[in-house]
Amino acid sequence: MTQSTRPQLSSLIKSSRDIMRKDAGLNGDLDRLPQLSWILFLKCYDDLEQRREQDAIVARKAYKPVISAPLRWRDWASDENKGLTGEELLKFVNNELLPGLRSLTGSDERLKIAELFKETYNRMLSGYLLRDVANLMNGIHFQSRDEIFTLSHLYESMLKEMRDAAGDSGEFYTPRPVVKLIVDRVRPKLGERILDPACGTGGFLVEAYETLKAQAKSAQDEVTLQTRSLFGVEKKPLPFLLGTMNLLLHGVETPNISRDNALRKPLNEIGEKDRYEVIVTNPPFGGEEEAGIQLNFPESTRASETALLFMQFIMRSLKPGGHCGVVVPNGTLFGDGVSARIKEQLLRNFNLHTIVRLPNGVFAPYTSIPTNLLFFDRPGTGGSRSAPTDEIWFYEHSLPEGVKNYTKTRPLTFEEFAPLLEWWEQRNDPSFDVQGRAWKVRAADLMQYDANGNLLSVNLDVKNPSRAADLEHLPPAKLAESIAAKERAIAGLMDEIKNLLENYRP
Questions:
Q1: Is residue 277 part of a domain?
Q2: Alpha-carbon gap, residue 382 to 15, rounded angstroms
Q3: Strands of 276-281's sheet, edge to edge?
Q4: What is the distance between the alpha carbons of residues 317 and 319, in angstroms, rounded to a whole number?
Q5: Which of the listed residues 223, 244, 260 is the one where a domain comes to its end?
Q6: Domain containing 33 — which CATH number?
């Protein structure tokens, strides 16, 4: 069996997508990538099962396949000359293969596959084109770890393309540099249970897997890594499929991703067995949860905004001594009412030690909302994670010199976080020059109460004092020029409004 090179695999994937473009049932990458994903999944899984069968033979043990004939890839797709094609192939896929996979029962692994295919459908209308795609997939050999590694990177590049084509559906993609930074700073350890409750295409779990993989030194470590380390929840069927495939390609043989809404369980029913040592996530924000989900939360902190509900879920689901990195929108930092009460709980019951402020455009092109990274620990026994919030470090990640905004063609890179990583390790060294990027604030100064002790606000939207000073000390000539320019702009707008009113005809 000849191992494919990266250019060969890239060409194979491109050819598959080109074939799919000819099919009338597929419209754009939002159709093509899910179709390619489930086909890839079945080829990959059959190769995995064949490896398990060989291992069982060597160990002189019986092996019961998860997917049995005639649903295995080898039964209907691997023979390019005698395999099904045309209308016969379409009938088998639509009437036997996919319904059969959806109805799998028995072991946890079989149930997971049934869950994966619950809302997975064949959208290709030509059985001949589907045969051509299957033939190309036979050129990928998932027996080779190098080939799987290469294909995983190609798959991630397709996920990025899908992000750009997704529009409002792009919420399930988090830029890889942000994912890498969060996991890198939270520093998960093998033996800890790691959760992403809104895992999308699995970026955080993949990054955590890569981190833990380097820590696995024995066969038992490998079992722990594969079965007791990574957990995800995803509400929507498309990212659930893509995330499962993403983890599989990176080496997670049985991804522990549940197709569910993490907020479905009442908050007060989340007990010790439901808690995790590490939570890394970018929960959806800007959306609203239905009334039934909102009722799962205490009346005093009940809200429709998903970001606020997820913050409560995360706080409740973190084990004592556990640590978290989460993406939140600016509105969460300065919001009052329910938002303030949730932040008060965060400061009083957790150690919110770091807030990284990101500039506009990090999540371009599908949202311009400024975002922040919150890093906090739940008080446990001993160490720096044993006390609630006393002081919060803020770090402002600035745009590179000469860059006005991050865009699709000029995205954020992980290398740009080098100053942040250096500061993180030396933040308590007073001689370390942070060049006006970092500042520290007492948590007590951010919580405002009235004379009766009632909470008024908790404002985490703390501006960089160095930037404020820069504005205050502008040269008089530049300050006057700025004011004059603003006045001219206002005058121009007033003239436009005046002309519109004069020419208005009811």
A1: no
A2: 56
A3: 257-259, 230-234, 194-196, 276-281, 318-329, 371-377, 351-357, 391-396, 438-442
A4: 6
A5: 260
A6: 1.20.1260.30
